[in-house]
Design goal:
Its cofactor is pyridoxal 5'-phosphate. One of its GO terms (molecular function) is pyridoxal phosphate binding. It contains 15 helices and 15 strands. By secondary structure, it is α/β, with parallel strands linked by helices. The protein folds into two domains: 140 residues, Aspartate Aminotransferase, domain 1 (Alpha-Beta Complex), CATH 3.90.1150; 274 residues, Aspartate Aminotransferase, domain 2 (3-Layer(aba) Sandwich), CATH 3.40.640. It has a seven-stranded mixed sheet, sandwiched between helices. Helix 3 runs antiparallel to helix 12, helix 5 packs across helix 11 and helix 14 packs across helix 15. It is globular and about 65 Å long. 49% of the residues are buried.
Length: 440
């Protein structure tokens, strides 16, 4: 064996990171427990982001760890192409208990990105199975985020995620985003204005023809773009239009699922049921990578019953329904039920909301948005340096023992659902001081 190279940080090409800056000024996390991370030096860092929107039950949950260990000793891996293992079926059944009524068919993936691409492929397969092969167009939304696969990236609408990669999927169009209406600034919960923006789908139908459109994919609450909360009536209108024109409605619930909005999924909180729903992140509390797609039973039946004998959907992943991930999912869902994590989120939401909006008077704060246990604080950018102010706020907060997330000049917060009032006070206290410090 060759001697290991020194750990000089060079080997790891970090994702969505300023690699040059980080490797000159590393900020490292070594372990985690409850509401906090700890640096290699032992310094506590309060987690204001649930990792990357995913550790909803908090860190280091013994129940999840023991489930993974037990499963690894029984069955480390089994293929799921033309074979099965019991725990994958159990995990699917447990998810189906949480999804909206009539969404009882679960397809396993390994991430939100894979879930997005899977949902789009299922939508295309559905229309083809029903004899509507002309429905190949996919509609996303400006500022939408659906992962980094070519399908989700094409339907997504964040320019910075697309511009390096040239031409993406054909036959894609986008609805306008719902951000920026003056009447909605500093709204608490769902803003009042903007339901009419869903009518842009009618214009796309008129332009392309309903018979060419397969699906519309949106996030119930857009997270990674900076917390964009749907206006009252917007999703209801989108659902109505999709139904009228025979278009499948896909909700990307990778962030909003598993209690983040105080309900099992955003569909329940916002009162709109999609045809297809993607999920990941909170599904396993991020202990093992796993994603899933839930579909209306009628969608599954059309694809499966409409196919010739043999394989009905030519799609899947080596690790679909991985035994360790399935065990982690079951243990996580047990925690959600036993500790009523959505209920805990609902109970503390009013306190969370008031704490977020208490930052309104701070320098350069131009908007605050919230829904469930999510908050977005938008800062005025520095002249000629977009994103610089929020990045410095992020660094100050970390150095002062609080982890936040930034996207552009928007601070996004999404703590574990076990958060308590002292955590909220500390989070917004440290954040407020950092915003003041970057006033210039």
């Amino acid at each position: 064996m060759s001697v290991s190279r020194p750990n000089n940080l060079d080997a790891y090409w970090m994702p969505f990171s300023d690699n040059r800056y980080f490797k000159a000024h590393p900020r490292m996390l070594a372990r985690a427990e409850g509401m906090s991370y700890y640096t290699p030096e032992g310094k506590e860092v309060l987690d204001g982001t649930a990792g990357l929107w995913c550790c909803n039950a908090g860190h280091g949950r013994v129940e999840i760890k023991e489930a993974i260990q037990k499963q690894a000793a029984i069955l480390d891996y089994a293929p799921t192409f033309q074979l099965g293992h019991p725990i994958a079926f159990e995990a699917a059944a447990r998810i189906a208990e949480m999804t909206p009524e009539g969404m009882d068919r679960i397809f396993f993936t390994n991430s939100g990105s894979e879930s997005a691409d899977t949902a789009l492929k299922i939508a295309l397969a559905y229309h083809k199975a029903r004899g509507e092969s002309s429905r190949v167009r996919l509609i996303g939304r400006e500022r939408g985020y659906h992962g980094v696969g070519f399908g989700g990236m094409s339907v997504g609408g964040i320019g910075g995620n697309r511009k390096q990669f040239g031409a993406l999927l054909p036959y894609v169009d986008h609805l306008p985003h719902t951000h920026g209406l003056a009447a909605n600034l500093f709204a608490k919960g769902q803003p009042a204005e903007g339901a009419h923006l869903a009518d842009a789908l009618e214009a796309l139908v008129a332009l392309h023809g309903a018979e060419t459109i397969a699906a519309v994919m949106v996030e119930p609450v857009a997270g990674s773009t900076g917390v964009l909360v749907p206006p009252v009536g917007y999703l209801e209108r989108l659902r109505e239009l999709c139904t009228r024109h025979g278009i499948l409605l896909i909700f990307d619930e990778v962030i909003t699922g598993f209690g983040r909005l105080g309900t099992p999924f955003g569909a329940e909180r916002l009162g709109v049921t999609p045809d297809i729903m993607t999920m990941a992140k909170g599904l396993t509390n991020a202990a093992v990578p796993m994603g899933a797609v839930a579909v209306q039973n009628a969608v599954y039946d059309a694809v499966v019953d409409g196919a010739a004998a043999g394989i009905e959907l030519f799609h899947g992943y080596t690790y679909s329904g991985h035994p360790l991930a399935a065990a982690a999912a079951i243990a996580t869902l047990d925690l959600h039920r036993a500790e009523d994590l959505p209920g805990r989120a609902r109970a503390i939401e009013p306190y969370w909301q008031e704490a977020a909006h208490s930052l309104r008077s701070l320098p350069n704060v131009i908007d605050i948005r919230d829904c469930g246990l999510i908050a977005g604080i938008e800062l005025a950018p520095r002249a000629g340096k977009p994103g610089a102010r929020a990045t410095e706020v992020f660094r100050r907060c970390f150095d002062d023992g609080v982890l936040i997330r930034v996207t552009g000049d928007i601070i996004a917060l999404s703590p574990p659902l076990i958060v308590e009032r002292p955590h909220v006070d500390r989070l917004f206290g440290v954040l407020g001081e950092a915003i003041r410090a970057e006033a210039a």
